[in-house]
Amino acid sequence: MDRSLETAEGADLVPSAEEAELISKADGTDLGSEVDGTGWSWEYAGYKPGDERLRESLCTLGNGYFASRGALPECAADEIHYPGTYVAGIYNRLTSKVAGRRVENEDMVNVPNWLPLRFRLPGGDWILPDTANVLDHRLMLHLSVGLLERRTRYGLGDEGVLTLRQQRMVHMGDPHLAALRTEFTAEGFSGPLEVEAALDGGVTNSGVARYRDLDGRHLTHIHSGTSAPDTVWLRCRTRTSDIRIGIASRLTTDADVPVTISHERPYAFQRLTIDLTPGRTVTVDKTVALHTSRDPAISDPLHAAVDRVGSAPGFDALVGSHLTAWAQLWRRAALDVPGESGRILRLHLFHVLQTLSPHTADLDVGVPARGLHGEAYRGHVFWDELFVLPYLNMHFPEVSRALLRHRHRRLEQARTSARAAGHKGAMYPWQSGSDGREETQQLHLNPRSGRWLPDHSRLQHHVGSAIAYNVWQYCEASGDMEFLHTKGAEMLLQIARFWADKAVYDDSLGRHRIKGVVGPDEYHEAYPDAGAPGLDDNAYTNVTAAWVLARTLELLENLPEPRRRELAERTGLDGSELERWDDVSRTLHVPFHEDVISQFAGYGDLAELDWHGYRGQYGDIRRLDRILEAEGDTVNRYQASKQADVLMLGYLFAPSELGSLFHRLGVRLDEHMWQRTVDYYMHRTSHGSTLSGLVHGWVLARCRRSEAWTFVQEALQGDIADVQGGTTGEGIHLGAMAGTLDLVQRGLTGLETRGGALWLDPVPLPELSSYGFPLRYQGHWGVRLRLERGLLEIEVPSSDASPIDVRLPGRGVTLQPGDTGRLVLRD
Q1: For residues 170 and 812, which has the higher predicted lDDT (pLDDT)?
Q2: Which of 50, 128, 279, 523 has the most Cβ atoms closer than 10 angstroms to its Cβ?
Q3: Is 712 exposed, middle or buried (0-12, 13-18, 19+ CB in 10 A)?
Q4: DSSP string spanning 120-166?
Q5: How does pLDDT run across 97-119, given as a tens digit for each residue?
Q6: How far apart are CA 219 and CA 175, in angstroms?
Q7: pLDDT tens track for 553-590
Q8: Residue 746 phi/psi, 5° resolution?
Q9: How many whole angstroms separate alpha carbon 382 and alpha carbon 429?
Q10: What are the CB-based long-range contacts (under 8 Å, 24+) for 658-663?
Q11: C-alpha distances out from residue 110 to 88, 200, 366, 577, 812, Å
Q12: Which residues contact 224 (CB under 8 A, 6 or more apart)?
């Protein structure tokens, strides 16, 4: 048996028999594969400074409340290492002077670093991997149990060899706890070893090189103290948002030596000296508690942290409860996919659950696009929940509900933004942080040219449609009519009101148009040589706006009459406004050229790009916009997209629903026209976003199956291979990771939740033809779907819930609780 999870006392740090049963039931595999690393561990061998940032992101540990990057504890932040820790929803706003302008930005805050633990021989230098002789180094992320293990052998010259083994957890059971166990073993020498642990309050936000011209000093009023002979604390607050942070650290050892404490602002130090003898292991445990003033049911974050760490059990007991919490998560959500694809999908699910766990249901937070794994995008919330919530809806609906409530709490701010722009309804921001105002930067840096450029991506108003889509999808999957009829209806109404007001009637077309927007493509922000930003009639924007209007009208028609009257009274909604919504929902303009859907009006008039020439000159042209700008050109002149735009319609809507939408708009869209549209944009997209491969793989699985796997592979490899060239080290791409999970859950199964039924239309993709997963659907816990080469099996667990209506093309079946249905699929 693999001893990679062995404790200092020689007992395997593996699940108990009960926990093993929980995990093995979660994924249908035997426990051996859980602990021997086959498919359930992510391992890095050798110390490679150039890979450290990527490893730190992919080895981040979190629990939905906070997360810490997988940095080595003895290493401080520098050009190689970045030990960031982030608490969900903790932001701070600072003003910087950039390119002669004062620019305000709100960032997710890098809170005090709890990890530091370093060591040295008396009188010697600290032993660090960048300066000492590293004989061997392995880093192992154990997905099934949520532990990061590290083994390093340092050569000490004539002194011998020091073997270091560490295990780290951010506790999934208690969201405020984390722990680090360090085991020291001497080989060929005896003598003392000095160990120093610390809490570091001097951290800044400096993990993204292109942001370093901005002020990153978010913490102030840093103080530390001692609460017990083995416990220190540190408190601080954010500079403008005034959020108080308290952190306490307990240091213990199995060696009979005292812990000495000192305070040197901004640090709190704990030191001890242990005696090493060859072959004998000495263990040092560091247990940490973290609280902020945003936490419920506390009086003071510092007192809460000190009390919690004081009552926390030892490392072994913490591991036991941590394993139980992870076993329960895997039981509810694990995908059973064979081979390397399954291994990558487990890693993706692991990081989704570390960012958005059941603990998130108690928080007022959104979906940070880069997880709690780094500082890219400043920790902002975009539209990534569009790719995340469909997966969560069918496993952790309570988390989806919390994320939608986060949006509802900011509905009034969205209405304020719409009024400021001269519109009715709610205009949700493209980027947001703490309070729902627009946080999109005014300037962005092109690292290739070194120039700061205006940023117009705030014109991506389609984020409102994404929020409405998520409300609808959540309520269909969960059956949560209470949310749909209250908060959901309020959001849909105001988003629909915004689109109806923004649409303008064009007499020459006899249709309504939406002008001055930016679509999901993001490359195109303006017409060539235009004096103002914005594009007209982005097809994705217009079609999704029509969908929002149609769904909101349907919802209002079906609301209980007392609730409909309440809503109309509160919002001033009347029949004439509803008539306009219906008219706009049927007459929004969808532009075409060359018998394909135009990305926006005038797209077909743009110049063709010399794709072959640019690939030959630059190789990787994913960020074509930066290349062209550095040449003094602009991507606005060309038919070149960063990522899927028009094709996003095929991602959101099944073919039948998309056809119905176009029919409602009075526009013909047949299968051949959609195929031509797919072909057209496939040859004009640079895939400068990790989401692009995901969307293309999803769409191609339905219409050009032979080419789908190339894009699915790109989506799977996006972060682990860092295909965007260094971006993963700044934080994982949460939407792309969750999207690959949903590709298996909904994309390949054709699974839809609508009309009170589960609709299935599986795609026989050869490379992913056998897979299974549990799901939670309208009160049914643990419904299991299994696709096995032409056979679909659906198992409904026994309960007192209502039967499930399952529908496939041309047929249907009703499954009672306790039933198992086996359906032969037609090719």
Answers
A1: 170
A2: 523
A3: buried
A4: E-TTS----TTTSEEEEEEEEEETTTTEEEEEEEEE-GGG-EEEEEE
A5: 887 888 899 999 999 999 999 99
A6: 22
A7: 999 999 999 999 999 999 999 999 999 999 999 999 99
A8: -115, -40
A9: 8
A10: 661/543, 661/546, 661/547, 661/550, 662/543, 662/590
A11: 11, 11, 17, 47, 52
A12: 199, 201, 232, 233, 234, 235, 263, 265, 266, 267, 268
Tokens found for residue 308: 């919690």
pLDDT tens, position by position, 216-228: 999 999 999 999 9
Catalytic residue among 34, 74, 522, 577: 522
Q: Exposure pattern of 447-456 as b/e (b: 16+ CB <10 Å)? A: eeeeebbebb
- Distant-in-sequence, close-in-space partners of 522: CB < 8 Å, separation ≥ 6: 457, 460, 642, 643, 689
The DSSP secondary structure of 75-129, one letter per residue, reads: --SSSS----EEEEEEEEEEEEEETTEEEEEEEEEEPPB---EEEE-TTS----T
The answer to whether 284 and 253 have CB atoms below 8 angstroms apart is: yes
| Model confidence pLDDT, tens digit, residues 637-687 | 999 999 999 999 999 999 989 999 999 999 999 999 999 999 999 999 999
The Cα–Cα gap between 617 and 709 comes to: 27
pLDDT in tens, 754-772: 889 999 998 878 888 889 9
**What is the model's pLDDT at position 38?**
54
Task: Note the pLDDT of residue 493.
Answer: 98
Q: How far, in Å, CA of 356 to CA of 227, rounded?
A: 33
Record the pTM: 0.94
Euclidean distance between the first and the last CA atom of the chain, given in angstroms as a whole number: 44
Reply yes or no on whether the pLDDT at 596 is more than 80: yes
**Is position 522 annotated as part of the catalytic site?**
yes
pLDDT at 370 over 50: yes
Whole-angstrom Cα distance, residue 144 to residue 30?
A: 12
Number of other residues whose CB lies within 10 A of the CB of residue 19: 21
Q: Which residue has the tokens 């080469």?
A: 789
User: Distance from CA of residue 402 to its chain's centroid?
Assistant: 15
Q: Which residues contact 124 (CB under 8 A, 6 or more apart)?
A: none
What angle, rounded to 10 degrees, do the helices at 575-587 and 539-558 form? 140
3-state secondary structure 587-645: HECCCEECCEECCCCCHHHCECCCHHHHHHHHCCCCCHHHHHHHCCCCHHHECCECCCC
Residue 758: strand pairing partners: 753, 806
Give the span between the Cα atoms of 110 and 374, in whole angstroms.
9
536-538-542 Cα angle (round to 5): 105
